[in-house]
Amino acid sequence: MDTDIKAMADAVREARTRIREDALPRARARRDDVPEGDEAALLGALAALVDTVAELAGTIHMRMTGPDTRTAYWRADQRLRAQAENLREDERKVAAKAEESARQKEARQKGKEASQKTP
């Protein structure tokens, strides 16, 4: 196997292994709710990971000798980039909702404090 291709495949496998060994057990073990302000963080990380894999597929596709293989890598790049953008859009929506929720909670708290001060 070409040493560059082997290194790329090994790097992708290593990322997969780290996710399976570090992230998945934590996701499976915890049952408590994620704080609303933290919900967007993982979506952003997933988007970045998918975007990086897309970049790899897009960068390497022209080195492929078979036209079908070249097309497969190009399609992978396009599809993965689209999914990364979907994740980023969801991240923005979730973050905006959390910010709005935090503002409403703060306004309620201020209203409560103001009503307690009024005789």
Order of helices and strands: HHH
Largest sheet: none
Overall structural class, as computed from helix and strand content, comes to mainly alpha
Uncertain residue ranges? none
Q: Rounded to an integer, what's the Rg over CA atoms?
A: 22 Å
> N- to C-terminal separation?
81 Å
How many helices does DSSP assign?
3
What order do the helices and strands come in, and which of them pair?
Elements: H1 3-29, H2 39-60, H3 67-117
Helix pairs in contact: 2-3
Entry summary:
With 119 residues, the protein is mainly alpha-helical. The protein is 84% helix and 0% strand.
Q: How would you portray this structure in words?
A:
The structure is a single chain. With 119 residues, this protein is an all-alpha fold. Helices cover 84% and strands 0% of the residues. The chain contains 3 helices and no strands. The chain has helices at residues 3-29, 39-60, 67-117. The relative contact order is 0.09.
